[in-house]
Amino acid sequence: xxxxxxxxxxxxxxxxxxxxxxxxxxxxxxxxxxxxxxxxxxxxxxxxxxxxxxxxxxxxxxxxxxxxxxxxxxxxxxxxxxxxxxxxxxxxxxxxxxxxxxxxxxxxxxxxxxxxxxxxxxxxxxxxxxxxxxxxxxxxxxxxxxxxxxxxxxxxxxxxxxxxxxxxxxxxxxxxxxxxxxxxxxxxxxxxxxxxxxxxxxxxxxxxxxxxxxxxxxxxxxxxxxxxxxxxxxxxxxxxxxxxxxxxxxxxxxxxxxxxxxxxxxxxxxxxxxxxxxxxxxxxxxxxxxxxxxxxxxxxxxxxxxxxxxxxxxxxxxxxxxxxxxxxxxxxxxxxxxxxxxxxxxxxxxxxxxxxxxxxxxxxxxxxxxxxxxxxxxxxxxxxxxxxxxxxxxxxxxxxxxxxxxxxx
Amino acid sequence: xxxxxxxxxxxxxxxxxxxxxxxxxxxxxxxxxxxxxxxxxxxxxxxxxxxxxxxxxxxxxxxxxxxxxxxxxxxxxxxxxxxxxxxxxxxxxxxxxxxxxxxxxxxxxxxxxxxxxxxxxxxxxxxxxxxxxxxxxxxxxxxxxxxxxxxxxxxxxxxxxxxxxxxxxxxxxxxxxxxxxxxxxxxxxxxxxxxxxxxxxxxxxxxxxxxxxxxxxxxxxxxxxxxxxxxxxxxxxxxxxxxxxxxx
Lengths: 409, 248
Fold this sequence. Notes:
The complex is a heterodimer. By secondary structure, chain A is of the alpha+beta class. Chain A folds into 2 domains: 3-52 and 275-407, no CATH class; 83-253, no CATH class. Chain A contains 13 helices and 12 strands. In chain A, the strands form 2 sheets. Chain A has a 6-stranded mixed barrel, surrounded by 4 helices. Chain B is α/β, with parallel strands linked by helices. Chain B has a single domain, classed as P-loop containing nucleotide triphosphate hydrolases (Rossmann fold). Chain B has helices at 56-63, 86-96, 112-123, 127-140, 156-168, 186-201, 213-216, and strands at 12-25, 28-41, 45-49, 71-76, 79-80, 97-100, 174-178, 205-210, 221-226, 229-235. A 6-stranded mixed sheet of chain B has the order 6-7-8-3-9-10, sandwiched between helices. A 4-stranded antiparallel sheet of chain B has the order 2-1-4-5, with helices on one face. The longest helix of chain B has 16 residues, at 186-201. Chain B is globular and about 50 Å long. The two termini of chain B are 29 Å apart. Chains A and B meet through helix 1, helix 10, helix 11 and helix 13 of A and helix 2 and helix 3 of B.
């Protein structure tokens, strides 16, 4: 009896008991659909977060003060004022750091903006002309800050799109004056929408020259220190070289001899991504583990029904053996039958899973990713479950002695 | 197997030598078949008779290689069956023996012709040839026009004829019928017995197990069992068939 006939026999046997087979498949269906949905949700969340992190800029290194490794007594928030404008200037030197394409030192604080009776508190960002390139932001209207603005301490501001519409509504904001923490400044440009990111809403901020922010808006410690230095590498390949150069240069400038105890932290997009992925990954694993339990229950359902089927068809098994079926052939027949049950349930589960993810992603406003490979895997798993839980019933059928099987009523 | 062709008429097909079968039921051993010596030649039509509990079903199981004897030897067409593995026994059942059961034992979900081709599936015969041979076998039992009917759509006599076709389809050396008329009315009984007689006339070896005298009358030789032993073995119509009296 070849495989094709065995499969057809299995299919006939499944069809002969429609209701029972359908209920058995339901167990597999629910399990497969649940796994697909949870994995899809996880992948969707991962894709969203990944896109957000990538929207921060490309090939980005984020240098922040203080060490994230708080081993021993060192570190803490007190060491937050270790990065200076001089550090940023040194990093921008192509001789010292050839793999660095752009450097944007930033200071950032919440501050009140006011236009003729309208107030809006937003994040005031003091930075240099490189910021737009490093953070991959463009200006939709007007222009971005220039080197002259920074060196000449010009009282100009570039607004995020949300900030502009909050202050000016539909009107064109470019050329208008807005007071930032009491300092009147001219709006020279509006940023393109950038969405939200792990660093906050990218569309609600006011970008001013770092010189102006330091001296006229923030004052105090902000005069010489910066909070964050965004460094862009020349390319993805140059990212680790740039990381090295930035690290060595800052160690030298800060006169730190022990490279394991720096007073700054360099974070890459990849590391942010890794953290985010590990969180969503863990969440997905837990959820799909729970969904997997329902798949297991479905598998036990298959085993149950197969055992019933073997008991019920004991005469048929005896007859087939009398007609010359070997134990191997009988075992294969029941295994295939279980696999057909599993596969049919799996196909239905995939269909429900795809339909369900479309419906659920509409309802939640959260993308659900159904990947073809995950779908194939789900089908393979459903066959595998059929086979796994079919092994015991099938061997029971194979072991039956022909006379016992024929004699049974 | 060494000799796939059925032995010529008159050659020994079944040779039991001191064959016995004991069942264990808990602590008690039940001797279902006491040491028996019996020879059936190729081309014979033998009826095995006996009341229930006489061991005729056990004998039938042993002859059909459905069960293995506890002691003694059983040679089928010269090959010692006792030494064979389960897989080899399955092959013997498939190639050498055609079974006809009291309960017909047809698969209800399949049309007649697919029931008939089933042994050929296990013999590894190609699909087209299987169908052809199954239809030929159905034609042989006079059911060519019923080949697409399911068992449920056929009368008892017709179902048993489908079962006979299934037993014939592999051209077995031995046709083993276990109370084939036990579930049939008199018309169908005559029908099936006529068929078996016809098959015997064309040279087949038929072993018929029954407890009814008028059924046994169709055979050329009658072996009577009682309490697991052969108590008589004689020709039915003296001179019509070769017969031999073997007593254990």
